[in-house]
Known about the structure:
alpha+beta
Amino acid sequence: MLKPPAPDPAALTWRCSAFGELSVYELQAIYALRQLVFIIEQQCLYLDADAFDCDSLHLAAWAHPAPRSGQPVPDLPVAYARLVPPALKYHDPSIGRVVTASAVRGTGLGRVLVCRAIVETQRAFPGQPIRISAQSRLQAFYAGLGFAVIGEQYLEDGIPHTEMLLASAG
């Protein structure tokens, strides 16, 4: 099967939104991307839309598909991360549900996404470290962005994970 061309990074619109600021169409598109990758591609059954979404910030890169047959097409998220406030999931603020659409994998957009997620998390929760539960296969990727391993590997939803921390910038 041919992979569709990745959207031009310059044509993406980045937005960090509170849950209530997302339209129902944007929320549905975010959930569809998360379910496609985490549940279908990774074949992992778990409750993706959990109690943390309502209180979190949602960072997404939105692509603007060309209209089909003169009909407008809604924007689609091609990269997404959830920024969870402190004391909700962990003592520290955290970044999770980091996902890129298959069309943009290998383009560097995932690194851009995590860098933007770090900046937005530091802006929302200044002076605090950022905690993540990283898939262990991505430990070196996150270490390259400044995260350090702070615990032993464990299974989360049947996938090896490692808890990591980015020290506060302030």
